[in-house]
Write a structure and sequence with these properties.
The structure is a single chain. The protein has about 150 residues and is an alpha+beta fold. The chain has a domain at about 20-110: Beta-lactamase Inhibitory Protein, Chain:B, domain 1 (2-Layer Sandwich), CATH 3.30.1450. It has four helices and five strands. Strand 4 and strand 5 (about 100-105) form a beta hairpin. The protein is flat and about 70 Å long. The protein starts with a helix and ends in an 18-residue tail after the last helix.
């Protein structure tokens, strides 16, 4: 066999091995087990819920009486875009006396796709001309504190 054939066959083997299916699954969140979730009942206090389920993934910023526990699995194959395989969200709402009033559990089937609008909104303001953009900062650099050079040295 010639060296060219050996080199070509090695190159072909390396190319084919680079096309392997690398599968990565990432788990995000801190969803409690189903047994623990079943222990939470209406009327329990925040302290009791926290002792059963642990700290929530997040607390709604405008409503401190809504706790959210969530988890998701994301699958990534080699260089392709990631795909969400599963999502689980548990929402617990409390009343003003810090007692559970609602327990709601949702999955990725309950979610909705949101279309992203890529339109741009023009902002009002001063349009910088060529000279202002490129020469506007000339003379504003002060390497020494205190104003004029030579002082505070």
């Amino acid at each position: 066999m010639s060296i060219n054939k050996v080199f070509l066959s090695l190159l072909l083997i390396c190319s084919l091995s680079a096309c392997s299916r690398d599968l990565f699954i990432t788990h995000n969140g801190n969803m409690p087990s189903n047994e623990r979730i079943e222990q939470v009942k209406l009327g329990q206090s925040k302290y009791e819920v926290k002792s059963i389920l642990g700290s929530p993934s997040t607390v709604v910023s405008f409503d401190k009486n809504t706790w959210i526990y969530m988890s998701s699995e994301i699958e990534r194959i080699a260089f392709l875009a990631p795909k969400e395989v599963s999502r689980d969200v548990l929402t617990i709402k409390f009343n003003e006396q810090n007692e559970v009033i609602d327990i709601d559990r949702m999955s990725e089937k309950d979610g909705k796709q949101v279309a992203i609008n890529e339109d741009k909104t023009e902002t009002l303001g001063q349009q910088q001309g060529f000279f202002k953009r490129f020469f506007g900062g000339v003379g504003q650099y002060m390497p020494f504190p205190g104003g004029s050079r030579g002082q505070n040295l």
